[in-house]
Amino acid sequence: MKIGVIGTGMVGKTLATKFAELGYQVLLANSRGTEAVARSIEGSIASITPSETSDAMGCDVVFLSIPWTGVKDLLETETPQQGRILVDTTNIFLTYPPNATIDDLKGGSGSETIAELAPHARVVKAFNTLPFNTMFAPTPPKMRRVLFVAGDNESVISTVASLISELDLQPVMLGSLATAGRQMELGGALSALELLAPVKGD
Fold first, then answer.
1. What number is the average pLDDT over the span 26-51?
2. Contact, 32 vs 55, CB < 8 A?
């Protein structure tokens, strides 16, 4: 499986690094081109390939990890190919804390918007409900931190859940983008909810 990551902020670089360390071929891209990507990962020991956005979008699984304000422009010019999995890790901030403002989607969700903008992709929502320094913080022995997953295709959700498990997180598959995706949205019932689960078999 080839993994593409769009975005070189904390979320994108963290995911790219962790999947590369697991042995996946990872293509990392941002809007500024391959040289800027290479600079962003200088010093990393993980084997990550700086790539153009179009190449990263061609991977089997693509993680969308850019600011919400750039999503529409990106997906109107570059979208994943037919049947590719697009994992939406975004949150709908228009401006960030301490003076945060949130987009008004009129009852919809960010992931549903992304699914409309990328109609050939199969969209999954994940990696957005906790800060990454919390998500990957140490846990008590024999416990894993819960990570919620939403999507409209069971087999696609299972693929993403398997990747989450490989990161030593506990995936909890919730349901559709229209229902669970909205619960995971900023201000939703699951946003910022931190849960731990016992490691199965222990």
1. 92
2. no
Percent of the chain with pLDDT over 90: 88
Report the chain's C-alpha Rg in angstroms. 16
202 pLDDT above the threshold of 80: no
Which two tokens mark 22?
A: 């697991």
Q: Name the token pair of 18.
A: 């962790």
Distance CA 84, CA 33 (A): 22
CB atoms near residue 120 (< 10 Å)? 11
Contact 184/128 with Cβ under 8 angstroms?
Answer: yes
**Residues 84/56, Cβ–Cβ less than 8 Å:** no
The answer to whether the CB of 160 falls within 8 A of the CB of 61 is: yes
Residue 15 host element (H or E): helix 10-21
